[in-house]
Amino acid sequence: MRLWTSTPLTACAAPSPYTFDRNGNQTAGGGFALGYNVTDQTSAINGESETYAGPTQRERTQSGATSFLYDRLGMTRRGSGTYYMRDPGGRILGARTTGTLTGNQYFLFDGLGSVVGVTDSTGTVIAHYAYDPYGNTTYETPNAPTTASATPATTQAATGSTGSSSATTTPPTRAGHNATRSTTHSTTTAGTATSTPATIL
Predict the structure, then answer these.
(1) Is 20 contained in some domain?
(2) How far apart are CA 196 and CA 153, in angstroms?
């Protein structure tokens, strides 16, 4: 005979409140304060201004003190010293950082187009990544180059990072799986990826 006993439940901590404007844009929550312009572009993230080249958020040209440059394939430069290399279809292949001998990094892809590794200029693998069927990162080499994210960026919604102008690259992880190019935004701050509003890398 089984005897069932109940365990008293304890109260959960109150979640941080999320607020939205009349257009449905998130204005606060998750540690972020967000502002928008008249075209509903994210114009500020935690006090840092955001500007764009067109009517969408696809080409962000400035985030705080960090500038971004694009061509028709996608982002080609972040800040004053990090340059991105792409194939003719626009897929990012690697990044180089001026002024350093070890600043070049090249991305290794699986059959779905997700970044599974990063090599340096000597061909040495310096980072590994793994994902679940939904594109969520399940493994990342400790101290690996920052993944986005979402946004990721993630997400293919890597923004080129706000809050840090270091030479760390942002590989466009989880391109395939069941994940889609997110319209939510991701912000990388000092090497950690967090989900909020952003631009596609």
Answers:
(1) no
(2) 9
The total of structural domains in the chain comes to 1
Q: Which segments of 37-124 are extended strands (E)?
A: 42-45, 48-52, 60-63, 66-71, 74-78, 82-86, 92-97, 105-109, 115-120
Task: Give the pair of three-digit tokens for residue 155.
Answer: 């997400």
Note down the domain range covering 159: 66-195
Structure confidence by residue, pLDDT tens digits, 174-192: 554 443 333 333 333 334 3
Rg of the Cα atoms in the chain: 19
Residue 47 inside a domain? The answer is no
* Residue 23 within any structural domain of the chain: no
Per-residue pLDDT at 34 exceeds 80: yes
Find out whether 162 and 78 touch, Cβ atoms under 8 Å.
no
Residue 21 domain-assigned (yes or no)? no
> Three-state SS for 91?
coil
